[in-house]
Write a structure and sequence with these properties.
Oligomer: single chain
Structural class: mainly alpha
Distance between the termini: 70 Å
Number of strands: 0
Largest sheet: none
Order of helices and strands: HHH
């Protein structure tokens, strides 16, 4: 005669499974984001760079023409504008082309 075996709900969920769980084998995944220098030809980057280079060119021309006071004013402005522009353009470049 066959005996029936009853399992309570609590024992059913707390009992370890009979077959061992198979763990996935670890594998190496590499990620590569291609970087192209052509991405620097974005109109926004070119405009910002052109404006900064234009101001620097005007400053040099004013020095050669002998208008030192105005050239000094440009230099004071550029001392602030160049780092802000550089980091702003760098942030824009990475935010636009890398993500």
């Amino acid at each position: 005669m066959r005996k029936t075996h009853y399992i309570t709900f609590r024992n059913f969920f707390h009992k370890p499974s009979f077959k061992p769980s198979t763990k996935p084998r670890p594998f190496k995944a590499y990620s590569f984001v291609p970087f192209s220098p052509i991405a620097m030809l974005d109109p926004t980057i070119l405009t910002i760079g052109g404006i900064v280079l234009g101001i620097a060119f005007i400053e040099r021309m004013l020095e050669r023409l002998g208008v030192i006071d105005l050239a000094d004013q440009f230099e004071k402005v550029m001392r602030f504008i160049l780092p802000v522009t550089f980091y702003g353009a760098l942030f824009y470049f990475f935010a636009t082309f890398m993500f």
